Amino acid sequence: MSPAEPRGIGPAICRSLAGQGASVAAGYSSNTAKAEEFQSDYERDFGVPVSVHQGNIGSSADCRRTVAEVIDEHGRLDILVNNAGITIDKTVARMTDEDWHKVLDVNLSGAFFMSQAALAHMVERGSGRIINVSSVIGETGNIGQANYAASRSGLVGLTKTMAKEALYSLKNQDGSPTTRSASPSTR
Question: Which of 19, 27, 58, 84 would staple 105 via disulfide (CB 3.0–4.6 Å)?
């Protein structure tokens, strides 16, 4: 799963995965026309169908529903790419509570809820990948981007924690140590 917007990192990820033979499901928030354009262009360019799924990445219920839809439609979910990200740039002094929460909801909480739903399926299957797309701003910070920097830094910590937990879950599934492919990675 990756975003269904016509330009940017999400479509590039979709195209790369398609070029490697993957069946793709893409998510979008509200622009149905753009998602349908992406779907049409994708199917024309690659000759394979792509499913598009509408949802609010900041809503835990929507994240769980979307992952369930993808699994129902495709039979499984092998790779989850958490690429959603927004910015609302303001200095700390001018940032509102809403500015803070909206960025954290999309950039960090959405990745958590999507990963949580996907990880349960992947651990049960014994395989899968979760790729969380972050930013150097999460490490360096930037003027006017406290919310964005916190969300991207948090994503790094979330990724490392999920990798350890996934490995632990897989070890305890059959009693033997393993590094099967359910370990999330950051790129």
Answer: 58
Please give the backbone phi and psi of residue 9, each rounded to the nearest 5 degrees, phi first.
-65, -40
Is 148 in the active site?
Answer: yes
pLDDT in tens, 13-51: 988 988 888 899 999 998 999 999 989 988 898 888 889
For residue 132, CA distances in Å to 33, 83, 93, 115, 128 come to: 26, 6, 29, 9, 13
Which residues touch 172 (CB under 8 Å, ≥6 apart)?
none
Domain ranges of the chain: 1-54, 75-186
Question: Which position among 28, 42, 148, 168 bears the catalytic label?
Answer: 148
Q: What is the third-level CATH fold of 75-186?
A: Rossmann fold (3.40.50)
Residue 96's CB is within 10 A of a number of other CB atoms, namely 10
